[in-house]
Amino acid sequence: MENDVQLFPCYSLPLRDYLMSNGLRYKLSALNENSRKKMWIFIDNDKLNSLLMEWKKTKPI
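RESULT FIELD:
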């Protein structure tokens, strides 16, 4: 389908905070059924991809 929305599951609290501090908002939060880890679902778009590339360059250890 052409109108499918791509989603990005985020399992990292520091990454979630970074994305939110840069103006993104997650669409929902949930527990992964298999791992029982909390995740935040963001819409995959150009801004998210740009922030993820910046995160890879500068993320804290």
